[in-house]
DNA sequence: AGCACA
């Protein structure tokens, strides 16, 4: 069959502008290829780290004669071609041009395309982005936008070198947690190059900046709200109303869980999202309603009230500057009731270290207008087994409430969450049967409905019924 | 040391 009639010698190839190099060190860079080949002519393209061992490469000369000169030089040279001390074998490639598999994002340039994973546009201010990327050189312009890929930013530097330095340092890293809103979990940066060379920024706004042009008109409507806090006549900060409430919980003698908060705040309308976190040793929570009116009603009704009788777990409510929380749909510290509730299992990446330990403290003070809450990532780690039976909360530091008025109403079926439970919320069921919490008051379950006087547990004299701390489920009593 | 992810 194969008459092995070698109509061409295996090692003899027709000349090509493209040279095939092998036996390269696997660390070889394009720069080293250029260094090696440049003496023979103009290199128009390279491709290194080719092959399973990443030890082959291609170099394309502008002119065929240049390639020929290199091959013939080393064919008769006593000194072999070398890269990092390794002898490099050179021959004509059997192709005549290098096909760049380089995706556009790999072509270096002075503008970076940054995807900030795991956050929404409102979570990372343009000032934080500016802060982070200024560590590598003067940032000329920033434009942010939301695409299907998520929240993205174009960062324009003076040159490709600076951009490359920033990319190398930051790609895959995370923005330091203290620069982020308290509810943000992990937040990884994916950085590629943009094809842009010069961004066209029309306004200074909360979405785009041109740091080279202070005269640029300011889009106030866009910049307000995001950055400026209103100051009242007495000099006190007036917090603009928001659909998201920030709750500080004083005298937290008993556990205040997501479920407890959901029960309490659902009395005034649909609770969309909840995030619990610690700030300065105090427990705080963000509660998101669909609208400001509902939030205002809840704030009015609940401010200064206690979740449990006896002055325990007293709520202090303010408006958050957030409008849409970005929270893990199901964890022990956060809940998103707008998505189907399935216990999260696969979050193996709970924390990323700070990016620049050395510069971090200096950066902290520069964040504009931020409630910079410290946030212990370990508290945020996803809890996959969420079984509310007595004794299954090893870190539960709280004692049972003194006045278990909720005990009578709990039913086993609704008082346990297991991993196998599929907990699906939709608009109509939201807030009615919250697993882990037994309800015995007629809360107004769904959004939009005005609070019925007396329907809020906190407006009654008794502690909040239905807010049974996990681990103290009454069906065992 | 031998031709490029499909």
UniProtKB/TrEMBL annotation:
Keywords from the UniProt entry: Repeat, RNA-binding
Region (Disordered): 441-477
One Pfam family named in its UniProt record: RRM_1
InterPro entries in the record: Nucleotide-bd_a/b_plait_sf (IPR012677), PTBP1-like_RRM2 (IPR021790), PTBPH1/PTBPH2_RRM1 (IPR034792), PTBPH1/PTBPH2_RRM2 (IPR034793), PTBPH1/PTBPH2_RRM3 (IPR034794), RBD_domain_sf (IPR035979), RRM_dom (IPR000504)
Domain RRM: 17-95, 242-322
Top-level taxon: Eukaryota
The name this protein goes by in its record: RRM domain-containing protein
Organism the protein comes from: Stylosanthes scabra
């Amino acid at each position: 069959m194969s008459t092995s009639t070698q109509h061409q010698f295996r090692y003899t190839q027709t000349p090509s502008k493209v040279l095939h190099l092998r036996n390269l060190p696997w660390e070889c860079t394009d720069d080293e290829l250029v260094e090696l080949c440049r003496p023979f002519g103009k290199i128009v393209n390279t491709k290194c780290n080719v092959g399973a061992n990443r030890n082959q490469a291609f170099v394309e000369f502008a002119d065929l004669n240049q390639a020929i000169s290199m091959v013939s030089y080393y064919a008769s040279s006593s000194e072999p071609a070398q890269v990092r001390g390794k002898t490099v074998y050179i021959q004509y490639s059997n192709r005549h041009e290098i096909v760049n598999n380089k995706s556009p994002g790999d072509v270096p340039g002075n503008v970076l395309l940054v995807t900030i994973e795991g956050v929404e546009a409102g979570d990372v201010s343009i000032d934080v982005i500016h802060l982070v990327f200024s560590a590598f050189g003067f940032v000329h312009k920033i434009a942010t936008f939301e695409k299907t890929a998520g929240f993205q930013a174009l960062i324009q530097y003076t040159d490709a070198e600076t951009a490359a330095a920033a990319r190398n340092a930051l790609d895959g890293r995370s923005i330091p947690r203290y620069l982020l809103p308290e509810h943000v979990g992990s937040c990884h940066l994916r950085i590629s190059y943009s094809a842009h060379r010069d961004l066209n920024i029309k306004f200074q706004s909360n979405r785009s900046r041109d740091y080279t042009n202070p005269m640029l008109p300011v889009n106030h409507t866009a910049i307000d709200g995001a950055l400026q806090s209103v100051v009242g006549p007495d000099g006190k900060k007036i917090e603009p109303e928001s659909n998201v409430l920030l709750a500080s919980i004083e005298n937290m003698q008993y556990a205040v869980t997501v479920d407890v908060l959901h029960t309490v705040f659902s009395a005034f309308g649909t609770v969309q999202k909840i995030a619990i976190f610690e700030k300065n040793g105090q427990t705080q929570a963000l509660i998101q309603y669909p609208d400001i009116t509902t939030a205002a009603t809840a704030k009015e009704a609940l401010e200064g009230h206690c979740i449990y009788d006896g002055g325990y777990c007293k709520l202090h409510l303010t408006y958050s500057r957030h409008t849409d929380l970005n929270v893990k749909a199901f964890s022990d510290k956060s809940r998103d009731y707008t998505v189907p509730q399935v216990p999260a299992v696969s979050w193996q990446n709970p924390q990323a270290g700070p990016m620049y330990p050395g510069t971090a403290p200096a950066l902290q003070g520069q964040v504009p207008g931020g409630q910079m809450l410290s946030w212990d990532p370990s508290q945020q780690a996803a809890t996959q087994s969420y079984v509310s039976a007595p004794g299954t909360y090893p870190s539960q530091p709280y004692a049972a409430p003194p006045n278990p008025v909720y005990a009578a109403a709990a039913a086993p079926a609704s008082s346990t969450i297991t991993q196998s439970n599929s907990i699906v919320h939709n608009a109509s069921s939201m807030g009615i049967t919250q697993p882990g919490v037994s309800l015995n008051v007629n809360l107004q379950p769904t959004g939009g409905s005005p609070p019925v006087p007396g329907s809020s547990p906190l407006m009654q004299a008794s502690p909040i019924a239905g807010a049974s701390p996990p681990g103290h489920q009454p069906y065992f009593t």
